[in-house]
From TrEMBL:
It is a multi-pass membrane protein. This is Aquaporin-9-like. Keywords: Membrane, Transmembrane, Transmembrane helix, Transport. CDD domains: MIP (cd00333). InterPro entries: Aquaporin-like, MIP, MIP/Aquaporin, MIP_CS. The keyword Membrane applies. The keyword Transport applies. The gene is LOC101066121. It is found in: Membrane. One of its GO terms (cellular component) is basolateral plasma membrane.
Amino acid sequence: MRKRCAIKHGIFKEFLAEFLGTFVLVLFGCGSVAQTVLSRNTLGEPLTVHIGFSVGLMMAAYVAGGVSGGHVNPAVSLAMVILGKLKIWKFPFYVIAQFLGAFAGAAAVFGLYYDAFMDFTSGILSVTGINATGHIFASYPARHLSILGGFIDQVVGTGMLVLCILAIIDGGNIGAPKGVEPLAIGLIIMAIGVSMGLNCGYPLNPARDLGPRLFTAVAGWGMEVFSTADYWWWIPVAGPMVGGVVAAVLYYLLIELHHPRDEPEKPREEEEDEEDEDEDSSLKDKYEMITMS
C-alpha cells in the first residue's frame, strides 16, 4: 500500500513539474512573439523571439529538471521512452501535463496582453490578414513551404534538438557540467532558431504548438486555426514525434552503443569474503604442507 502511494505521489510531482515547466516555456516564448507583433516590431524583432524561446526553455529545464527531467516536449519524452530512460506508463502523464501547461501558458499571454490584443485587432481576432495574431501562439507555414517540406522541416529540426539533448545528458560522452545542462539546451534552441526558423518558425514541440492552438480556437480565433494552410496544424504535431524517434535511434546506434562498458564493481562485502577465502585456503595449504613433512 505504501509503495503504491509513493508511486502515485511520485508521478503527481512529475506531472506538476512538467506542467509548470511547459507553462514557463510558452509564457516566455509566446510572450516574446506577442510583444514583437503587438508593438508592430518597435519592441521586438526575430532575434528577441529567438532569445525568448531559448531562455524560456532554459528556465523550464531549471524549473522541472530536478523532478521530472524537464522534458516539456512530447517528442523528448518519447525519445526517452525508446532509450529506456522513461518508463512507458509515465509517458501519457507527461504528455497530458505538457499540453495543459502549454494551454495555460497561452492563456496567460493572452490575459497579460489582452488590452494590447484588442487595440491591435479592434476586437477581431484572425489568423490571416494585416492584423493577424494567430501566429503569436502557434506556427503557420511561410508561403513557399509545401506540406512535405514542412514535415521534413519538423523532423530535421526536432531531430537535431533531441540529438543534442541526448549528447548533453550522456554521462559517457563529454556532456555538460552538472547544473549547466539547461543553459546548453537553451543554446540548442537559439542555434535552431537562427538556422532553421525561416520555413515555419521552429515549433519542434507538439505540446507547445497544439496546446496554444487549442486555446486560440476557444478564445476567439475559431476553427480557422486548424483549417488554415491546408490543415497545417498536424505537421507540428506529427513531424516532431517522428524526428524525436529518429534522433533517439541514431544517437543510440552511432554514439551510445559504442561507449566502453565497464564491469560493475563488486560490493565491498564480497571483496572481503573473497579475501577471507584466500586467507583460509592459504592457511589450509600451509597446514597440509606441514603435516606432509
